[in-house]
Write the structure tokens for this entry.
Amino acid sequence: MKELKYDAVVIGAGAAGMAAALEIEARGFSCAIIEREDHLGGILMQCIHNGFGLHEFKEELTGPEFAERFIERVIKSKIDIYLNTTVIKLNSSSLCASASSRELLCINSSGAIKITCRSVLLAMGCRERNRGNIRISGSRPAGVYTAGLAQRLVNIEGYIPGKEVVIIGSGDIGLIMARRMSWVGCKVKAVVEIMPYPAGLTRNIVQCLNDFDIPLYLSSQTTNIFGNDRVEGIEVTPIKNGILKSEKSFRVNCDTVLLSVGLVPENELSKAAGVELNTVTNGPLVDSCLMTNMEGIFACGNVLHVHDLVDWVCEESRRAGRYAAQWLSGERSTSQIQTKAGSHVRYVNPSQIAPEKENIIYLRSMIVKNNAVIELRVDGQIILCKKERHVQPSEMISFKLTTKDFKNIKINSNSILEISIN
């Protein structure tokens, strides 16, 4: 078995993994990136539409163009890259607070590789939820795809999966594929969303549906998929006050169904290693330094929580790389307090913050509201009120907390920071 040794190993070569690795390498530590695909850049390489980089690079780029900015830097750096290589195990027996090293067992076409390192950064991204996750009735005909798979078929493989398309769910990938399928000559018959509001960004609703006159059915559930050998249509049932109105069900004929029903962090490897996961996001629980409950193991990007913009993935991942480098230098976290999702907040990341330093908070709203107020309380005492012109579940909210926000608050180890939206 081939054996290697590094200060840090980053698992995943998407935007998150590359941004984190560059930060570690820039601070003088040896670093390797392990990627199971045959290329750097992750899912960005199949996202040929524009809209990326407005925050990160102050210009509008396609997904491959955005990725290329990081790929060029990684290739010029001293970071070792292992493509077509899969991490099959994080050695949990050595992942404990007193351990000075961690072991990764990897495999590629050359055989098994054992990598010993001091720190690991989890940046494996996320995967799509599929038909099994949402339990739609019907047989199992050909023509049912996740939106991301359809995107790969069209943009990378050069195949058009069907002619008449219905998209279930209004996530951003599905919205973008509604436009993409229209561009290649398909007829997108409808987008069906179970919630009373869209799951994707407002700009994608406008540019991908409204501009192409594609109907969006909100508060509607897909209750059946018709067809035996090939999809022939779907049944749509409206929802009112949480109750399916079967008498108002209608059929939409189609030969292809694309599922855009949410993303799930890719955390089987993390869980097997003993990393504690957040039951809401399905990503790791992390402290203010983006470190998991396993000492020296950090998480960033969509494996931590699903972001709406890759620009925010890069920002978060750079910080993870910086924190990992500081940890490798011997720095340890200051005292931390727990965070808690209050009313109308789905989750808060990180799960702990350090009042003695600057923190960046991420959260998602559970409601759609104009002129909302984000209220932060420590042990019931308000420390900050932040006004937002508009909040909705599809758009992540982030802001900074500084030491000034805690200056008049008495804090102890049992204190809790609760964030609500009113």
